[in-house]
Structures are given as structure tokens and as C-alpha cells.
Amino acid sequence: MRVPNRKNSFSSWRRRLAQRAVHAGWAWARRAGSVTAERPGRLRFGALGTGTRLAFPLGTVFGEPWIRIGAHCIIGEQVTLTAGLMPDLDLGPEPILRLGDGVVLGRGSHVIADTTVTIGSDCYFGPYVYVTSTNHSYDDPHQPIGKQWPRMEPVEIGPGCWIGTGAVILPGARIGRNVVVAAGAVVRGTVPDHAVVAGAPARVVRSWTPDEGWQPPLRTPAPVPIPDGVTPGQLRALSALDEAAVAGLARLDAES
């Protein structure tokens, strides 16, 4: 015979209250701990544009005087941004890491700039993207690889790119304008404008030219653009109509 557990309503109430307090406190910490141009905290970037926000909790950030971040960027939680091999180095008069306007770096991404790394405007990174301008060398077979002086090459990512989750951008990469880097791709060398690359090492799997369009052709139709002259208010009204239609269909299903 099973004896029913006696529920301690007082303990349950205390747990719910504690849970709400923890969630409210964490939400407050995320708001208070985020970094903006108006509230940079301890960080002194070479530039931090209007409307840009670094989410809390931050990842590793150092070499801020040599990091320039444009306007209206979104830097996700636990994103690492570093300039130089280690903190407190004098890297000279020029910036090492540059992010253009409207850049989005997904949660847990790393951008390691021991020499120059440039990310163009309106680039979007998925979570856990790794960009580095430094790689280990292994010229001397008798020395541990971690003790050999690394090789450094500049990295440039053109404007308008989409970098998929878990992609790795290696030293010396030159990625053109409006390029799609597939999730998990490992990119080195030069990638032309308007291309899709995938694999490890990444290779071009689709490209666009004015004469031929996308080759191979896209498997899905292009999205229909919003007509000229449509106002935000009209779009909100259409959204409300869609919600009402969905609710109406749900009622019909329930009655049938």
C-alpha cells in the first residue's frame, strides 16, 4: 500500500517566492550589467556607437582602446572580444578590431584580434562563431606547439554577411560582401562576393552573378518584398487580422 506524500504547502510557497525573486534579480542584473555608450562601466572602447549594447554576462574583453564598435550593434551574452595577445599591451595608434554598424554577434561567439580583424556593417553571426587572426605554428618538431610563436594574418569579413552557428574563420580569411557561411564551416583564404560556402575546409557551393543569378538555382522562391508605401501601422493592422483569423479557425476546430 502506497502512503501518499504529504505536501508542505508552506515550503512550496517559499520555493515559488524564491524562484520569482531569483528570476527578477537575474533580469535586473542583465539590465544593469549590459554595456552601452551611455553606461560603459569599466570598459573604455576606442569607439562604442549609439544604440549598441553588450549583453550581460560579458565574455572575456580586453584591449578595449583598440576595439571600435559601430552604432546599433548587438553583442550577445558571453561574447569574447580581444585585441592583442594579452591584456595591458600597447598596440600602437591604430585600432586592431573594428566592427561596423548594425553588427550582431550571437551568444558565446569569440573574436580574437591579435592583428587586425575587420567585420563589415550589417553582418549577423549565429551563436558560438569563432573568428581569429592567430594560429599555432608547429615548425619545430622538438618544441611543444603551445610554446612556439604563433602566426598572425589579418581577417576581413565584408558587409552584409551571415555567419552560421559554430563557424570558424581562420587567420588570413578574406570574405566578400553578402556571403553566407554555413553552420560549422571552417573558412580560410578568399571567398568572393555573393557566395554560399560550406564544409571544412569551406568551399563555394552556390554563387550569384548579374548574368546568371544564383547557380545552382535556389530551391525556394524568393520572399515577396513589402510594397512601397506600406506604413508600419498598416503592417500592425495586418498582423492583428492574421491573429484574429487564427483564433477564429481555432474556435471552429473546437466546435466541430
UniProtKB/TrEMBL annotation:
<keyword id="KW-0808">Transferase</keyword>
<dbReference type="InterPro" id="IPR051159">
    <property type="entry name" value="Hexapeptide_acetyltransf"/>
</dbReference>
<keyword id="KW-0677">Repeat</keyword>
<comment type="similarity">
    <text>Belongs to the transferase hexapeptide repeat family.</text>
</comment>
<dbReference type="InterPro" id="IPR001451">
    <property type="entry name" value="Hexapep"/>
</dbReference>
<dbReference type="GO" id="GO:0016746">
    <property type="term" value="F:acyltransferase activity"/>
</dbReference>
<keyword id="KW-0012">Acyltransferase</keyword>
<protein>
    <submittedName>
        <fullName>Acyltransferase</fullName>
    </submittedName>
</protein>
<dbReference type="Pfam" id="PF00132">
    <property type="entry name" value="Hexapep"/>
</dbReference>
<dbReference type="InterPro" id="IPR018357">
    <property type="entry name" value="Hexapep_transf_CS"/>
</dbReference>
<dbReference type="InterPro" id="IPR011004">
    <property type="entry name" value="Trimer_LpxA-like_sf"/>
</dbReference>
